[in-house]
């Protein structure tokens, strides 16, 4: 792995090796049958009561104001005369706030007491850049850039089992990359890599006596990905919107398909504790209302269907889902019937273990920070609760000490 032509950024290599292993085409990868996987889960299943956290990333900056809608606030209607929803259109949560009309499934979960809405979530000194803000959310480091993610640091602190965290998708998000460990990446599209790419990545993953500590970690991660691929690949076939999940398809990559894979793994008894899935398209600078409502409908159908499926299986009762976006949007609509990059937004947490209701203060629409909502809840407090109460681990290595409990678990 030495020499100028073999020098690669470690994170880029980890992502690349995950692509190969996720597709099951790396040399030595083992494809397990469903029966073999089930037998393994019987011998070493996820223990009863061991929680599972599913992280849903909404890429693009979802407009939280038209998601959890302050329909009774005149300032809302004044700032968005064309984008605002009328009181009769929203799905009422209380006398002031309601859900977007596309979110009927989550509204039902609210009524059942298993949906928490954390309001005004963000971080100090917000950044309006998609890249930087998402990096902050995924690394849980608002003050300075770091090269490890919050789930990656949890992996570093808790052992070397390659099945502890899984990203459904071939490219690992930065939240999943640690200093010594990385989550597994699973590709649901079935698109194979070129043979030359497979050979190159296999060569980069070969161990050498001269490897540095970082290079040894890369090789170990590469080997772990192959183990994970052999475990999960039998579950990837035919994952399109079965097991109760809904939502429109994007080939094999719809949110419903991703959650179908998660559901099948949970019900099989696989010991994974954290899954990551994603949905994009929320950068609504123009013609927002129709675009966002369609995306929120996809989110709603996929999440509510997945959670309904989890309620039918004993192993699904410990599953908690969190959905977040890198920032919200500005209060005032722009001239293109859209909204521009903002700051704080709502985070949804749902599942049987969740104490439903509102958490965090609702940001004011008139007391603004140069047109932006003021953050009322630090996102690291949400993460800390998911780690401490969702999967029963010390959150300090991942998000630092001194976080405040939110109370939704």
TrEMBL record:
Record bears the keyword Plastid: no
Keywords: Signal
Presence of keyword Protein transport: no
Taxonomy, superkingdom: Bacteria
Pfam families: DUF1501
Signal peptide as annotated in the record: 1-31
Transmembrane segments: none
PANTHER family, per database record: BLL7424 PROTEIN, DUF1501 DOMAIN-CONTAINING PROTEIN
Protein name: DUF1501 domain-containing protein
Annotated source species: Williamsia herbipolensis
């Amino acid at each position: 792995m030495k020499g100028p032509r073999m020098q690669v950024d470690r994170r880029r290599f980890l992502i690349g090796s995950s692509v190969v292993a996720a597709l099951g085409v790396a040399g030595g990868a083992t494809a397990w049958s469903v029966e073999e996987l089930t037998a393994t889960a019987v011998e070493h299943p996820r223990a009863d009561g061991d929680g599972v956290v599913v992280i849903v990333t909404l890429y693009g900056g979802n407009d939280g104001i038209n998601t959890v809608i302050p329909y009774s606030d005149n300032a809302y209607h004044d700032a968005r005369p064309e984008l605002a929803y009328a009181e009769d259109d929203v799905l009422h949560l209380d006398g002031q706030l309601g859900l977007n009309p596309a979110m009927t499934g989550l509204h039902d979960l609210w009524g059942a007491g298993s949906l928490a809405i954390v309001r005004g979530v963000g971080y100090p000194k917000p950044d309006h850049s998609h890249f930087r803000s998402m990096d902050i959310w995924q690394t849980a480091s608002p003050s300075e850039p770091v090269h490890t993610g919050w789930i990656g640091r949890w992996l570093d602190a808790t052992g070397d089992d390659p099945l502890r965290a899984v990203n459904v998708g071939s490219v690992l998000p930065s939240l999943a990359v640690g200093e010594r460990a990385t989550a597994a990446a699973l590709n649901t599209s079935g698109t194979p890599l070129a043979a030359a790419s497979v050979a190159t990545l296999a060569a980069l993953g070969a161990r050498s006596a001269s490897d540095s500590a970082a290079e040894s970690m890369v090789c170990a991660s590469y080997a772990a990905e192959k183990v994970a691929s052999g475990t999960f690949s039998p579950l990837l076939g035919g994952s399109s919107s079965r097991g109760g999940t809904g939502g429109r398809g994007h080939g094999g990559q719809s949110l419903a398909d991703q959650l179908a894979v998660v559901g099948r793994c949970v019900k099989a008894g696989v010991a994974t504790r954290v899954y990551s899935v994603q949905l994009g398209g929320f950068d609504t600078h123009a013609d927002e209302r129709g675009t966002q409502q369609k995306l929120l409908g996809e989110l709603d159908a996929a999440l509510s269907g997945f959670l309904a499926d989890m309620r039918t299986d004993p192993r699904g009762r410990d599953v908690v889902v969190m959905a977040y976006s890198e920032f919200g949007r500005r209060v005032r609509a722009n001239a293109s019937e859209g909204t521009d990059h903002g700051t704080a937004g709502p985070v949804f947490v749902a599942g049987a273990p969740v104490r439903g209701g509102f958490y965090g203060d609702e940001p004011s629409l008139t007391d603004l920070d140069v047109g932006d909502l003021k953050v009322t809840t630090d996102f690291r407090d949400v993460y800390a609760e998911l780690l401490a109460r969702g999967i029963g681990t010390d959150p300090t290595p991942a998000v630092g000490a001194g976080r405040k409990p939110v109370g939704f678990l």
